[in-house]
Design brief:
The chain is built from four helices and three strands, in the order ααβαβαβ. By secondary structure, it is α/β, with parallel strands linked by helices. α3 runs parallel beside α4.
């Protein structure tokens, strides 16, 4: 049996704090938003954000459909991907050097 990660063990406390804060916008990694979506669908999280923005990870159509169903009252769902375009010259063509811009 796999042991829960530290962040998973803290999820109930995070959900409690989010319920108290009642954010208008959720913005975070796709994985974290999906975890919160599961909490919302299970009734442990009870918020109605007007927007949900997934960042930093790939977002599939299925992910967005799940988040839309979980946070159905949100009027806007989007995937944000920000790059430092002034550093694009640091990338080497044909390589998998995604950290070259640091």
């Amino acid at each position: 049996m796999r042991r829960p990660s530290r962040s998973t063990r803290r999820l109930p406390q995070v959900v409690e704090r989010i319920n108290q804060f009642r954010p208008d916008v959720l913005w975070g990694y796709t994985t974290a938003l999906k975890m919160l979506g599961e909490e919302q669908r299970a009734g442990r999280l009870d918020i109605k954000p007007v927007a949900v923005a997934a960042t930093g990870e790939m977002v599939t159509t299925a992910d967005m459909q799940f988040l839309s169903a979980a946070f159905g009252g949100a009027g806007r769902f989007q995937h944000l991907c920000l790059y430092r375009t002034h550093d694009v010259g640091d990338f080497e063509p044909g390589t998998d050097n995604h950290d070259a811009h640091r």
